[in-house]
Design brief:
This protein has 435 residues and is α/β, with parallel strands linked by helices. The protein contains 17 helices and ten strands. It folds into two domains: 186 residues, D-Maltodextrin-Binding Protein, domain 2 (3-Layer(aba) Sandwich); 198 residues, Periplasmic binding protein-like II (D-Maltodextrin-Binding Protein, domain 2). The strands form two sheets. Strands 1, 2, 3, 4, 5 and 10 form a six-stranded mixed beta sheet that branches. It has a four-stranded mixed beta sheet with strand order 7-8-6-9. Helix 8 packs across helix 16, helix 12 runs antiparallel to helix 15 and helix 13 crosses helix 14. The radius of gyration is 21 Å and the shape is globular. The protein starts with a helix and ends with a helix.
Length: 435
């Protein structure tokens, strides 16, 4: 098993040129003041570092990283800036517009499409990472590879399946619908989603687990084609997939309170048994393991698609050093230290959210049984581009993913799919013209 999992993790090295979804997780609730690096009164260099907090990325985890770096690098201080709101890209854009851009940014991809925002990464640092993890924008390398994140599968309560007479995980779309019907007949709610301020969470499971696979099966070079104007967002492959998702809602398979729940609340409701299934990210698995949930209680499977398309996608993550940073060498030193230079710290960072190494010499960590099952489910599953998280010159226009997430909430609550997708084309073209 360990060899199979290691083989899969190594095979995922192609992800950066391919592949998030909310990571898909909401930002924290409190913010520190931002700003460019400065010299502290005691002569130390202070670097500001923009991060976000979740149930996995806790304040304590970030502080452990800061404490370790400062202990090993006297004279350099790290000041955390907590990103808030429902859009991390928008938070950074606001800071940029205010002339208060943090020196080091986690999750900087949306802004990297614009020249002059992030500094070019030293070649000797880039050489430490997998070739496929290197992002190129207009011939420049302005992002430091951080990790790769597997996207989502469908977690399910085994006791509810058993009580509904379901003996096997669904492998086809028809079997998936049959599972939903049997659960309904047994008086159970099949599926959970989320809404509230977590706009990404409503569609994350369906878009990354089903629609992305459907699109990539028909159009392997979708990003290139849509950017060149050779394809439309109104394409029947996309429309049919979203109509199938809306059909699950119309059939009553989703918890009726889904849109009132934040992502964290939705996950908690699912774990408490409010629904039998929840399409959730790979980051959930280590938290389930840490909570002592066993494979006898909870399983997971790759979500079947209506067409039979079978693939998975994975989001690459990066850090960026602001062009306005007054101490770039020290900022890149911090990036190198956390993202592989100190293996124990990198292992902490990766294992906290169930993500995987992008260093040429992979940094591995022990996984619990549910996370192991999640990874093993992809043993025979091909990796494809995650359309909305593709990086470099095939990336979506900045802000487009946020727009689609809001639109997909409309689809979930009953808006006409074809009309929504027409608006996607209009917004997409406007954003391309503004680039």
């Amino acid at each position: 098993m360990k060899k199979r999992i290691l083989g899969l993790l190594l095979s995922i090295s192609v992800l950066a040129s391919l592949a998030i979804g909310c990571a898909p997780a909401a930002a924290g609730s409190d913010a520190s003041a931002g700003g460019s690096s400065s010299g502290a009164s005691d002569g130390d260099i202070t670097l500001t570092w923009a991060v976000f907090e979740t149930d996995n990325y806790t304040a304590e985890m970030w502080q452990k990283i800061i404490d370790a770096f400062e202990a090993d690098n006297p004279g350099i201080k790290i000041e955390k800036v907590l990103m808030t709101g429902d859009s991390r890209p928008q938070f950074l854009k606001t800071m940029l517009a205010a002339g208060n851009m943090p020196d080091i940014n986690v999750d900087p991809v949306d802004l990297a499409t614009t020249d002059g925002i992030y500094a070019e990464v030293p070649e000797e640092l880039l050489e430490k990472y997998e070739d496929a993890a290197i992002a190129t924008y207009n011939g420049k390398h302005t992002l430091v590879p951080a990790y790769k994140a597997l996207r989502n599968q469908c977690y399910y309560h085994k006791d509810q399946f058993k009580e509904a007479g379901i003996t096997e995980e669904p492998k086809t779309w028809e079997e998936f619908l049959d599972v939903c019907e049997k659960l309904m007949d047994a008086g159970k709610v099949p599926l959970m989603s989320a809404g509230a301020s977590d706009i990404w969470a409503t569609s994350f499971g369906w878009w990354t687990g089903v629609t992305n696979s459907e699109i990539m099966a028909k159009y392997p070079n979708f990003n290139e084609q849509i950017l060149k104007g050779e394809l439309s967002w109104t394409d029947p492959v996309i429309a049919d997939s979203l109509k199938a998702w809306q059909g699950l809602v119309d059939a009553g398979y989703y918890h009726k309170g889904s849109m009132s729940f934040s992502y964290t609340q939705a996950q908690s409701e699912f774990l408490d048994g409010a629904t039998a299934m929840f399409m959730d990210g790979a980051w959930a698995a280590p938290s389930f393991d840490a909570a002592g949930i066993t494979p006898d209680e909870l399983g997971c499977f790759v979500v079947p698609t209506p067409s039979g398309a079978y693939s998975y996608c994975t989001m690459p993550q990066y850090w960026g050093v602001s062009e306005t940073c007054a101490h770039k060498d020290e900022a890149f030193k911090f990036c190198e230290y956390v993202l592989g230079g100190n293996e124990d710290i990198y292992r902490l960072y990766l294992s906290s959210d169930g993500t995987y190494s992008v260093t040429k010499n992979p940094v591995l960590y022990d996984m619990g049984p549910i996370q192991t099952e999640f990874v093993s489910n992809y043993d025979d599953c091909p990796l494809v581009t995650e359309i909305m998280k593709a990086v470099g010159d095939i990336s979506m226009p900045s802000g487009f993913e946020d727009y689609t997430c809001k639109s997909l909430q409309n689809v979930f609550t009953g808006s006409d799919v074809d009309e929504e997708l027409k608006k996607w084309d209009e917004e997409f073209n406007k954003m391309l013209e503004a680039k």
